[in-house]
Amino acid sequence: MRILVANLGSTSFKYRLIEVDGGEELARGAIDRIGQPVSSCVLQVGGRSDRREQHVADHAAAMEICFRQLTDPQFGVLQSIGEVAAVGFKAVFAGPVSGVRRVDEALLETMERFAVVAPAHNPPYVAAMRQLRRAFPDLPLVAAFETAFHRTVPPYRRVYAVPPQWRDAWGIQRYGFHGASHRYIAERSAALIGREDARVISCHLGGSSSVCAIAGGRSVATSMGLSPQSGLPQNNRIGDFDPYALPLLVERLGKPLEEVLAVLARECGLKGLSGVGSDLRDIERAADEGNAQAQLALDAYVDAIRHYLGAYMVALGGLDALVFTGGIGENSPRVRAGVCAGMEWAGIVLDERANAEATGERRISPDGGVSVWVIPTNEELIVARQAAALIRSGQDADVDP
To answer: Which is nearest to 186 in space by CA: 379, 34, 397?
Structure first.
């Protein structure tokens, strides 16, 4: 079964075509600057690449271009659009509605109601999904929610200390995100160390970051809460923050609450703390040049990761594997070394050379003790499997199939 996995932005459409049964990526593509006079349309098949420049009005037009490229007689990998069983989306948030679900108007309305919690994610997804439903009414659209993997977190770790009706009536509780990535790490790390009952801590570190404690392949704790703005400092989002600072900021900034929240979601995190920008590579370079604020941002980021690392070792009752993934986790030896520094007492020791040279999938710790890994994540494969499971069963699922 072939599934097209779509990653949507407000002006972008990225996709991968995956053969689910063999786990093979057949093609990938990206269409940028949607709605602007000239858009860039790129398709990659193996080592070949096809690039075109043209106007792309909206996401429905982007999907049409995607299918034309994939069925191109000389360059494509499909004979017809009918070979695509469904389009899968790594959807973010619909409150208590989670799992893997066919996209219909009721689901889109639920996502709209919770857009205030995921303002950077839900609005572009809802708008694009509506366009695609109208343009391709016979093509199944499947939303695989990032929160689904964390449905196994115990209730006492999901609740906030608020009146029960807030949770029951309004959905105010911890949900967690990056579920597709953490699920892939759970599966892959168990295979690498040969233990289905492994205790794993997955550090998905990138523009958006979270830490997840995994026991026997199931999430038992995760750093993000009600919204993707919480937990670790994000590239430009605040992370954990005392809500009682909000009235003070409203007063001092002279802005209404909505604008203050926008600042917290766009101008804070590593970007706000460093004063350099949101790209960790730029922050690391600035720190090397003596920028004290950039160094402070790095130190705060690493310390936040270590905070969850310690807490989750307690929650798991020990640790078998520590995994780094995501753009930062896979590419920053400095962050990995900082997280593991002084952790010999817990059996966490880095092989300095392996850490410095790590590319792709690699163990970066000596034999014995906790195994420390760099594992590139594959969220698209997880979403493709979830979408295929729904199509085969014909039923929505409340948890990951």
So the answer is: 379
